[in-house]
Amino acid sequence: MKFKKWKCIGWLCFVIVALFLTACANEEAKSSKEENESETEVNESGMPIVNEELELDFFANKPAQNEDNDWNDILIWNHYKDMTNLNVNWEEINPEALEEKRNLALGGGELPDAFFLSQIPNTDLLRYGGQEVFLPLNDLIDKYAPNLTKLMEKDPSIRKAITFPDGNIYSMPALIEEDFLSLRLSARPWINEAWLSELNMDIPETTGEFYEYLKSVKELDPAGGGKTIPYGGTTVQELVQWLSGSFGVMNRGPSNTNVDLDPDDQDSLRFYATSNGYKEMLTYINKLYEEELIDQSIFSIEWGQFLANASDNLYASMIFYDPIELFGEEIGSQYNSIAALEGPNGRKDYNKLSSSVWETSNLVITSENPNPAATVRWMDYFYSDEGAQLYYMGVEGETFEEKDGEITYMDHILNPEDDMTFEQAIAKQLTWLGSINGIIKADYFQGGESAPQSMEAAEKIEPYVPEEIWPRFTFTEEENKILQAGEDIGKYVEEMRDKFISGDADLSEWDNYVETIERMGLQEIMDVYQSAFERYQEG
């Protein structure tokens, strides 16, 4: 018995010593961590962000336009590293593999310190935020992101778009400058003014006048041989969204699919895809299609074929990007822009406009990050005027210069040697092609949307844009489950839209279409949207 007693006492001593040694080790680790954090203390303003170099691992979606450059050794990120003392190690992901590799990292793989431009959907932001894989950023943004905070104060919809029902912000967004209307419009309507002149017609201002122009140009056939295409585009959805304002639907923009503000009750939402206005719009577009005033291949046309048709000067009207930039001066200069068309009930709105929140998940910080405050400051710089200039124009004397008060790219970019294109010259030193980071501003963006023809088109459209455009609402986890279960409704609406337009389904079947949607659980979907809308209003 004595032996057993002393054996137990010996084991107890061993445990006590082990616990003491573990506590000492933990204390030493804690001390080491505090010392390391002290070495990487964040400067709340100015540059550098930290006094001692800090290394961070970023998982980044690398657009195809950047495939030939290395973000770990490129002017833009080398320069920013020198400014900030933050050395980002880039894990560059091909867009085709983005979702798979992102899910692997989140599903138990090796987490990066941050996800950059990684298109993380709101459902995942909420899920992994709730699991503490993604850090809530509310307090960090308040303290270390003055540029983003200023933008949110000016445009409250930004904060609403990135705040989840649990009250947390799990990401820093990609934004379009609110006044950069040309980019927010995306593709917009154009009309062949040379052919208008041949017909002795003015630019259409109503849906009726637009129909008369399409009909007249088909009869005139200026392209010859019956090749003239009165209206063409890459998808029929572009036409539907443009005409939505003429028929009083999609009155808060396209971000919340098929849902807008009920015009009869400003506190309620409407599923506009079952409304009379929507039916009237489909009836009008069906008439255009049946009379072959719309390209009969619009439901299947490839971009390459569309561009080939444009290069052959076949289109009398279209919805697309800047014609001169894409088709060249000779053909592109024939086109003039159209604004909103007045519909049969006197509505004349241009609702085809994106929210200023382009993407919610520009930067997402994970629980592995050794210095979230420094990372927030790193991102916040790109919401400033100087940061936008750096990202989209680069470094003065390296990629741009100032002339007569305006900054322009240097000649080796504008007129590169050895048959190199403008885009290839940009990609050798900058990474903005194919992505929006921070805030994109008209002053520093050199894409087709900032070309004179596009900017003039935006000015013409501006008077008809609604005062409020909604971003995508945020939902609880339970609400997301209901929305996912109801995805068949959206697919059915799109399928029937195309059938009604093409004539594969007769509009006499409208009542059956509405009843089918209601049987698919529309009311439950609308209850979810109504709850999200009320939170949005309160936010």
Automatic annotation (TrEMBL):
Keywords: Lipoprotein, Signal. Transmembrane segments: none annotated. PANTHER family: ARABINOSE-BINDING PROTEIN-RELATED, DIACETYLCHITOBIOSE BINDING PROTEIN DASA. The gene is lipO_1. This is Extracellular solute-binding protein. InterPro entries: Bact_solute-bd_prot1, SBP. It comes from the Bacteria. The keyword Signal applies. Pfam families: SBP_bac_8. Residues 1-25 form the signal peptide.
